[in-house]
Write a structure and sequence with these properties.
The protein is mainly beta. The chain has two domains: 133 residues, Sandwich (Immunoglobulin-like), CATH 2.60.40; 91 residues, Immunoglobulin-like (Sandwich), CATH 2.60.40. Helices cover 0% and strands 52% of the residues.
Amino acid sequence: MNKSILSIYVLLVFFAASCGTSREKQGELVVSTDVLDSLVESASEVRFYFYEEKNEYPDAMVEMYSPLGNQKFKPGKVPFEFNIKNYPFDAGLSGFQLKMVLNGNDPVGYNSPIFQKELNQGTYRAVAYLVDEEGLALKEFGNYVDRDFMVGETRAFPYQAEPYVIMNLPHNDQRYAQGEEITVDFLLLGGDMNKDRLNVILEVDSMRYPMEQVSPVRVSGLGPGAYSISLHLVKKDGKELDGPFSSVRRRITIE
């Protein structure tokens, strides 16, 4: 039986902005993993970093007309209606422009502000948001909206003032080519990182990357295989929040 020794060291590298380019890596974390067994000796570096992102539609606004807060529906088709302002929704941007997450699951994209969705009995939290041409969630106030509602005989979520997160990218079971940069994009709702003294912890299997800003994180250097990617919203003192949507997890595969 092969024996392996896994040694991980972490190097945090800070970059000073010198040329003003928006694609300069910032907050880079390098996790170097040496794997030794009786037959193979290999080493790899996994890198976590983010870019300075620019929101091209800071005044964009999405309003939810339906459902109303804690509105009740019969099981079946539930109507959704949105009003979108200050955003080129009908200008033919590539891909889906409006995305919606139900109960922390994968987002579904829509190119119409009015649609119906078949839903079974249950209590739901909908988060709708606009995206840019890269498919990244717009993160200014008004770029997104959330709403709780019920289908069938069920109860509303217990009132909780705690903030929570949803994951825009990646999707569950998404597949990547080896060497392809992975983007982890998310939204923080109901709170502020600084005012509420929050951190978001990104975990890729056993590797951890702490974040103090709501910016898409890029991950590179993962070898072939299946990986668990999760986000955890915590207080700066490390205390985990206990809300139903304070963490989210996805599985991806590197081919």
